[in-house]
Amino acid sequence: MIEEKTPITFHLAELRRRILFSLTAWLIGSIAAYAHVEDIIAVISAPAGKLYFLNPAEVFFSYLQIAAVTGLFVTLPIHCYELWRFLRPGLQDKESRAFVWFMPAALILWYGGAAFSFFVVFPQAVQFFLSFSAVSLQPMFSLAAYLSFFIAFVLPFAIGFELPLALIILAHLGLVTGKSLRKKRRVFIVGAFIFAGVVSPTTDMITQTAIAVPLIFLYEGTILFMRFMKP
């Protein structure tokens, strides 16, 4: 086959070109995000209100963090496309077609999980923690701490929402079936709460439940979807 005769140096050069292109896209996206960093902070901090900084360098490095994360988040489709272009020559037609639907599905689930967290769960979580304030105890969130909490809160949802795709792939490989998933429902529920306890940015049950419950619904939705799949 032609792929077997292709020198390894060619693949390494191609990989290097794809990585450089992805890094360039990330850099451009980060620069664009930095130009609007104050607007981004205003959106992120809306549930908490005014933020504070505790040392002079905190604002600068927090701005860089926001720009880098936003740039990566926005340019993620480009990175996935470059990965597919690199792997495509070595894929068979069936594998290539599967990859074409797999990548968009993964992106949709990733952005869907992040959006669900940001618009539905995160504001409620912040308001829950603010409810503990009192006359002698007022909240004062630092910029760096709030951003770390925000990223640590949204990221598990983005990862967790990939669950249906992972289960469908396992089913396609013949490793699981809808029937086997139904039998392991209780095990998964326990595992969902364990996962939530590991990735949760806090130790309270409210946040952990907010992470675990959507995973359980996704699990049940995947079982329902598998009923319409070919055996």
Automatic annotation (TrEMBL):
The chain crosses the membrane at residues 20-37, 57-78, 99-123, 143-175, 187-203, 209-229. This is Sec-independent protein translocase protein TatC. The gene is tatC. NCBIfam families: tatC (TIGR00945). It comes from the Bacteria. Keywords: Cell membrane, Membrane, Protein transport, Translocation, Transmembrane, Transmembrane helix, Transport. Coiled coil: none annotated. It is found in: Cell membrane; Membrane.
